[in-house]
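Predict both folds.
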Amino acid sequence: MSDWIDDWLSMPRFDVYLADAAGDRDLALARYDWNARAAAAFHHDLGHLEVGLRNAYDRALRAAAPDGPHWVFAPDRHFSPLLERTRRGKVYDSNETSRKVIDAAVRSARRATGTSRPDPGKVIAEIGFGFWRYLSARRLSERLWVPYLHHAFRPGTGRPAVDGPVGRLHDLRNRVAHNEPLIRRNLDARYADILTVAGLLSAELREHIAGQSPVPGALADRP
């Protein structure tokens, strides 16, 4: 097989697949193509899950502060300065990034809609998965999770039950978005994580994702 593959993918990138295929270039190329199909399949399911997750969190945050402007237009209501200290003793505001993400989403929605006060749903859609992923972080447990955010999930759902799988799915989503290799990842476990989180949101959402998912077929098709 010619070196066009090395020119296309770069040797370091293709070497990952060559190693997985024990040096068989034809098989390595087939696995690269399969990796792209698997990534597309996960992108489908992760997209469904992300929409459900962000809308559930939005409902919980709105219910926590029903009066006044929507929380995306008043981020200090839920993400006011939270001072913490690093191991080296430096004091920092651990909620600063969250406020910046929300403000950036508002600006983006304003540009997209041409209005100074876009619909909150437009703003929510501009907020990336990383923001929602960290709403189950331990640092927000007392301030947000215990009083408010647990209402986004089925009764009895603990924070670690959400944070573990959502953290792993955040990593997977980043790999999918950057066309990184998935061949050495436990993809069956990540699919199970998707269904787990979906089930914590609602049994019906889990059933819908499982019924429409292209992931099982993609995983079974690995060369």
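Second protein follows, with its predicted structure tokens after the sequence.
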Amino acid sequence: MFPSLTDTLPTDWSYLSEGGATIVFSYKGPSNPSFNGTVLRLRKRVLGSEDEDHHSEIDFTIDFQKEIIERLIPRAHLPRLVPVVVGEDAGTWLEALAAACEPHRPAERRRTDHIDVKSSNAVLATDLVGGQIIAVEIKPKWGFLPSPTFLSDATRSIKTRTCRFCMHSHLKAQQGDVVALGYCSLDLFSGDESRVKNALSSLWDAWMNSDGAMNNLKVFVHGKKIGPVEQSCILDLLDDATDPKEALISALLPILTATPVLRTLAHLQRTLDALDIEGLAALWDRAPVGPDPTMSEWTDFIATYLAAPSLPPADSAHLRHHALAYLLSATLKDCSVIVRVPDGTVAVIDLDAKHIDRLRKWARLDAEIVRAYAAVPERKVCVDALRV
């Protein structure tokens, strides 16, 4: 029997954070073995969109982590996910929670979406930011430069020289978006102390300059997300420290250079995205890519991949395999890593499966990113330290 949210009060849940698809609350109510030490992940709905029942999607999220992700990333580095039903009078309960959290949500989020108050179930996950600790959430993004093999003559010299994150940041800056321009994701993945330090410093500076709006770095202290104006509270948990930035980087650096998590993510991203979106697009021009994979198809794929990580030939007969590989790589490129200080633990979150209908959108975006960066006279050189 799954726990029911209506066994708690909406006021027992405190707004924590949100991403593009879900909104997260931490449990602050009276002691309850079903909810202690958990966060609640609820689906959001775009304003004005049709009502959707996310029941099967939530079940799929939990199964996807158990059957697929846990075969790639050790369970010790993953949150525990548990399904939870909303319970009787679910709409009223969710509406009360939605009304209470609205003042705490970023303005840009309030303009585009809200809690799906028609949801009948949700996900409970391990609370990785709660307690008397500092928790830093980093969205590392892409950890490799692509192989030149399947790139076009027009893009090869650009994509193999400058990483995807740096190129995309250039385009976003042109469009007026908040970006971490000084941050290179390959620095964070490098394992080199000076480069990882530079990555963390760049993320901190972007966090400061954007007043916390930049989404590649979030900082939580005592279970509460803080903004730059509150940075001094970091010092409460770090002995003999006087500068929040230097103290936090000094605490994070040995953890991030020692953990196997970043190296694992980069390896998986690279081996699953062997063709680049360009090579994959060349295949789907010759054959249909098909619908979203079923869980059975995912489990067959992961068994094949783990038995022989090198992908099959780049031909239309193997299009489906390459499409699933790219989708899984995309999940790993879009995840976040939570580092707890002083615990020293590292966990990976936001590992939901991607929908296959996004492939063509990604191909168009890739072309737009490279076109914009091709106009840069002095292009950045990014170093892929993990390239074999």
